[in-house]
Amino acid sequence: MEGNRGVLNRRAYLKTVGASGAIALTAQAGCLGGDGDAATLTAATAPGFPPFELKEGGELVGFDIDLLEAVIEETDYTLGSWEEFEFDSLIPALKNENVDVVAAAMTINDERDQTIDFSDPYYSADQSILVAEDAEFEPATLDDLADRPVGAQSGTTGEDVVEDQLIANEIISEGQYNSYGNYVLAVEDLLGGNIDAVVLDTPVAQTFASNRPVTVAFVYETGENYGFGIREGATELQTGLNEGLQAVRDDGTYEDITAKWFTE
């Protein structure tokens, strides 16, 4: 019966926290000035990246929101508030000690790892090329994007693919790249016919394809892993988040949150 009680607690948690989206966390945040000198965390994310983080009825919701809240629930820390930023402002906010942890489908890569630290990976993804459903354009490789206007979100690994693979290899020119503050704006421009393709993380592309007239033309394999971002040297918080992440994997909460936000 102990196991059943655990399931009920988890479901109750998702009902009160996950299903209704992020709690209106308006408490005064006790942002960590250093490593472990306070127990209240300020979390940051960048809405516009469904299903990881988005706004529904003005409320912040998504996979990352539910997961980080469940992870922190397993630690000695408490969550004070969520702060919202453009994606490329998240790391500066973390370094300036305006927030303590970032949950924004942030890929762990060498460039970011030089300025911040990460939790253990919590999700794996590749990049997808999204096109309009009614377009006759059906690319199957990056070379098929030659001389086409392409979009991606600023500061993301989708933008890295555009810059490192398309522009650097002269498949498209710099002038043919369109950078956006979030992927919702990029998809709107795609549907408006202003660009021919968007490069973005596969689960996000699949979410857009499920509720907009767009389709995933092909997947460009990058083997990326997402992690929660924290300030360099915050080893106690890093350990706490890693232990919390393992706990939600072990008790089935991770599986429940995944099932809630990702449908095949």
Largest sheet: 5 strands, mixed
Counting H and I runs of at least 4 residues, what is the number of helices? 9
CATH class membership of the largest domain: Alpha Beta
Average pLDDT, all residues: 87
Percent range of helical residues = 25-40%
Which superfamily, in CATH terms, is the homologous superfamily of the largest domain? Periplasmic binding protein-like II
In total, the number of strands is 12
Distance between the termini: 32 Å
Q: Which overall shape is indicated by the principal axes computed on the Cα atoms?
A: globular
Widest sheet: strand ordering: 4-1-5-12-6
Strand content: 15-25%
Q: Give me the Rg, rounded.
A: 19 Å
Helix-strand makeup class: alpha/beta
Count of individual domains? 2
The CATH architecture assignment of the largest domain turns out to be 3-Layer(aba) Sandwich
Q: What name does CATH use for the topology of the largest domain?
A: D-Maltodextrin-Binding Protein, domain 2
Order of helices and strands: HEEEHEHEHEEEHEHEHEEHH
Q: Which regions have little confidence, pLDDT < 50, spanning 5+ residues?
A: 1-30, 33-37
Protein name: Glutamine ABC transporter permease
Keywords: Signal
GO molecular function, one term: ligand-gated monoatomic ion channel activity
Organism: Halanaeroarchaeum sulfurireducens
Walk me through this protein's architecture.
The protein folds into two domains: 40-122 and 227-262, Periplasmic binding protein-like II (D-Maltodextrin-Binding Protein, domain 2); 125-224, Periplasmic binding protein-like II (D-Maltodextrin-Binding Protein, domain 2, 3-Layer(aba) Sandwich), CATH 3.40.190. The longest helix has 17 residues, at 2-18. Helix content is 35%, strand content 23%. The protein is globular and about 55 Å long. Strands 4-1-5-12-6 form a five-stranded mixed sheet. It has helices at 2-18, 63-73, 90-95, 110-113, 157-167, 183-191, 202-211, 235-250, 253-261, and strands spanning 40-45, 54-56, 59-61, 78-84, 101-102, 117-118, 123-132, 150-153, 177-180, 197-201, 214-226, 229-230. α2 packs across α8. The model is unreliable at 1-30 and 33-37 (pLDDT under 50). 42% of the residues are buried. It is α/β, with parallel strands linked by helices.
